[in-house]
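protien #1 (seq + structre)
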Amino acid sequence: MWRVTVRALVVLLSAWLFGTLVWGWFQQNGDEKPRTQHTERPGRGSGDPDQSCFCHLTGVLDDCFCDVESIDVFNNFKIFPRIKKLTERDYFRYYRVNLKRPCPFWPDDGHCSIKDCHVEPCPEYSQAANSMSDMSECEQAKELGAINSTLSNQSKEAFADWARHDDAQDHFCELDDETSPDAEYVDLLLNPERFTGYKGPSAWRVWNSIYEENCFKPRSVYRPLNPLAPSRGESVCFSLSLCLEKRVFYRLISGLHSSINIHLCAEYLLDEGWGRSVWGPNVQEFRQRFDVAETKGEGTRRLKNLYFLYLIELRALYKVAPYFERAVVNLYTGNSQEDAATKELLLQVFNEIRMFPMHFDEKSMFAGHKMEAKTLKEEFRLHFKNISRIMDCVGCSKCRLWGKLQTQGLGTALKILFSEKEIKNLPEHSPSKGFQLTRQEIVALLNGFGR
């Protein structure tokens, strides 16, 4: 008898749950009009949280004949898996950088997130707001922004060997950080690019200087670099009055900014407790930076500029492939088997890149009157050099590391695109005097592209 009772109760409970679900569905959808072929898709400002950032990220990119969908398929299935393996190799995981270089444009603000900072109120907060919670946030930012400089004795001995090998090569360009006594190797796998707590006026001042003083920014682009500043009511459209070269420059810097922001949103500190930190995607932070409504329509353009940056660096890798395919080029770490495997993997990447059918055509740049083109090219170079120097003003060691690396990676890509004749005339079995890449430039180029 009790078995029958139990079965009856189960049937009644199942019927009640099913009825509740059906009634709830009708309540939610009862007022919705049937969709027809004339029903409009969610547009700008749509309340659909899953589509608000990406529904407009489609179709052909400006200034080239490539579309977003083709890039996604090519990158996700052909390039990214190989690049990920490549950047985990010893040659590409160690980056030599000087993180102690002083800011050349304004006094060091002593932001609490740098490695050796004193626990003082962050510049973002006034003295009156210097509560215990402010102090702990400052301490947290210090810890999150610190560089993990752990290296084994074996690695240190290998680096000395690498230096002797590199010094024996022919260099015909300024080596910058590589020659500084303050430069040191950093393990990029131990120092991933992610949120560190570095924010506020200190960070905004860096990007303000890049966009407002060193970038060919269209006046009509809305960019509230300081979220606390009132909007100036600028219209949201991309001015085509800029020449192609200046438009390309702006889009590259915007794409670099988008890349950095996306990685901070993807590796955000979600929780910290019980002796371990939990990192993961912060969707709300991502929407704040790229949602159509939140950014007054600029978010989709920022994401498209990231795709444009990808195309430029992809094109640079396509162009520089002959440099690495020569037998004289060795990705030296002292381990011949490791070196051969690393180069083979790099050549596989180049083979895949050759198969991409829609490369950016850089020949359209600087193609006008010779004197005007030469002046514009020099202006292009000086603007970018200034931006690379601004990265020394970043007050967080880890942010400075990845900012300098990605900026140098993009600078190396531009150097390649501007050196087509020199690359074509490379000798097969001897070092080149017309075109040369340093270890630092190679590591920055591939890791920047990997980002």
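ok now protien #2
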Amino acid sequence: MTRSEILEAIHAVLRDHMQHSHLEAFAPEARLNEDLYLDSVLMLHLFLNLEMEFGLPAPDEVIAGEGFSTVADLVELLAADGECSDASAAVASQPSEGVHGEDYIDIKVHCFVSCVCAALKQSPGIDHRPFYFGVWDADFAISDRWGLLYHAPSISHDFFRDWYRRLYGVEVVEWYDPGRSKQDNLLVLLHLLERRRSTEYVMVMLDMYHLPERENKFNQNPFPHYLMLETTDDPAIWRVLDPDFRWEGQIEKDRVVNAILQPTVGGGYVFDRAQIREPRDADLKAYFEACFRPDRNALIEGTRLIIRAHAAGQDGTTLGELATALRELPVISIRKYAYEHGFAFFWRALKLPDSEFQIWCDEIDDLAQSFKTLHYAVLKLSQTQNRDLLRDVETSLDRLDALEHRIKRRLSAVFDLWCAQRSLTDFPRSERMRAMA
């Protein structure tokens, strides 16, 4: 197909097959997320329809990659039939000091953790990376209809709050009371903001779907999300700090309040970084052990259960509903990048070679990106209801499981080395050398 034909095919899929409601801005220069509101899941639907309706398959590296932002970028990648891998390699090869430098790239994969870690990063001498130990296998839920959920009443942040207090000496106080009305909770929030100290952080959950001026990379509806607020000199404007999306700026107070008052969300905390202290090594060891699950990969297990339940028609589910059931998989699978913080913390402490760290970063990236490829296969299975595709999906899950176990084994080995360095465990020299091999 020519580039103009590919452009028209993209438009036709969005208009006729996906009934997309944001096509007024469609043009080669239109940004896929910000202008056309295409999140990662809708992009997979776009790729699937281009393949099935126009015989235009997207290479795996396009499905998994993030090397395009506009319609024109996407046209070029599809026209080049997967040659985008060269462009992503060029981005990855940009000069860097590596894991031991101060320009080490930060990871943002969990809104609650990103908020509390923002305070740690403002505290001299405190390394925020260990707190991400709890993210790569953080809780999720499975609904009664076998749907994957990153936000549910059964999911609590108490685990993180308890460990934040034990590690850093800071009490994360829950100011939001679900027993009160929305308006009463809003009054509490207004009071906290008016009396906020310079070292204090006021967190609130809101529905990001109702802040269209803000980036919503997953375009979820609803999209529960924690961020932090401050007042400004203008009573009608609030300052918004969103560490998870690396954004801060000013938004009209009424718009923020509207997003807070949505019935789909509810939650809020307050804490003060003035209380932060450096964690003890023994507590860091205990936290890692409380978070680390060496023998199971919960997200892969849960995804497999959901797929098998729909394939078997359990509780009246069908393969056709599988796409909806796993819609939130990208929001949860991105947490796997937290492994990088685990490796980085131990690598820096042990002064291990940056070259091996980069190898493990590539493995972690492969894990996270392969979840996208799996998600694409799941969407194809759901749309076609071709049961012959189940075998390929199961094979993908097996590969993901093996890859994550490999990552965990190496992380466990460097954790043991770190414990031995700090005399936190009996770890014979022969075992240390074997772990390094």
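Residues 82-96, 432-437 have pLDDT under 50 and may be disordered.
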